[in-house]
Design brief:
By secondary structure, the protein is α+β, with helices and mostly antiparallel strands. Helices cover about 30% and strands about 20% of the residues. The protein has a domain of about 40 residues. The chain has a three-stranded antiparallel beta sheet with strand order 1-3-2, covered by helices on one side. The chain starts with 14 loop residues before the first helix and ends with a strand.
Length: about 80
């Protein structure tokens, strides 16, 4: 998962959580074994949501996203 965003007027009401939960379910339905995302540690609300949905931090390695400094994944 990358570059997920919610319009500011809809932030704080659970839209991001619904989008993320649907993405997780779609990955499972498609037979994915792992779902990962990269983000920024400055995005505390997003990271909190990801953790609540089951993502755990893993080593980031290389990424094409210059602002990304954290990688998280769910293993199914």
């Amino acid at each position: 998962m990358a570059k997920m965003a919610v319009n500011p007027q809809y932030q704080g009401i659970g839209v991001g959580k619904v989008l993320c939960a649907h993405t997780i379910q779609a990955a499972k339905d498609l037979g994915a074994k792992v779902l990962w995302l990269v983000s920024s540690t400055q995005l505390t609300p997003a990271l909190t949501m990801y953790r609540k949905l089951g993502f755990v931090e893993v080593p980031i390695g290389e990424t094409e996203y210059s602002r990304a400094d954290i990688k998280m994944e769910i293993v199914f």
